[in-house]
Amino acid sequence: MDFQLSDDQRALRAGVRDLLAGRFGRDRMRAALESGTAVDPALWRELGDAGFFALRLPEAEGGVGLGLPEAVLLFEEAGRVLLPGPLIATHLAAGAVKGAARGEAVVAAADAGQPVAHLGGADALLVLGDAACGLVRDAGPVREAAVSVRSTDPFTPLWRPAGPVTADEPLPPPPGGGHPRDEGALLAAAEQLGSAARTTEMAVEYAGTREQFGAPIGSFQAVKHLCAGMLVRAELARCAVYAAAVTADPVEIAGAKLLADDAAVHNARDCLQVHGGMGFTWESDVHLHLKRAWLRAGQWRTAAAAEEVLAGDLC
Question: Which DSSP category does 93 fall into?
């Protein structure tokens, strides 16, 4: 079996990385952070034009006709640059909500008992359930009754609905027939993987340029061990996420989410330690990766829920 990415998949990943570097590079990311812009409508439409949301829709429906492994590559790149917005929910509902595939509509995800991220700018809601998922095509009434709550991640505004969010209609099965919660968990794991890989790169880059006692700190054994551990976590998560993308098995997805969450959170913490006092400053991007990783670890499938899936498979 060939476990390497195909030439087309490499080209797709490179194209998305170039697109995001030009449309959401660090300067624009920082500008969005300072302005408090969570979802930029112009950027959202550009993502739609590039096929980000319609990637897995059949070509006959205006999509790209690719699969879950290719979607994982896209969301990994999104995680690298901290791209904000309800990307996963909009991607999953692209075939059911008018305008979502083209980036003309924003779809947020509502999970029982959890605050709803990006409800303030959402046009529709994807209501998550363990057995089935549904849609609320007009998020206005839910938004008007909801209360804004403080978020760990400055890019992810949260809203607490006044009560349980009830779907108006069932969500059609995603392309491939998987469960939306499982596929959402896998795409969230891909974002965590991208963040874990990026913080590894940031730590190595800083360790190679920051000097103490006349030598780069990367030459010190303790820093070497931190960076090596970060690489191991990221690559272990990569193997699990890529494998789950191929099999689409719920148990493997649960394991991939656990490993990716662990890699994203602990790599950001270790990156913070490598940066020392500089990592705690607002000007550094390390804390943004850590805050996003914390928040994302509680979305789509929490550690406790993933462990229940794995434990159930052992029985």
Answer: T
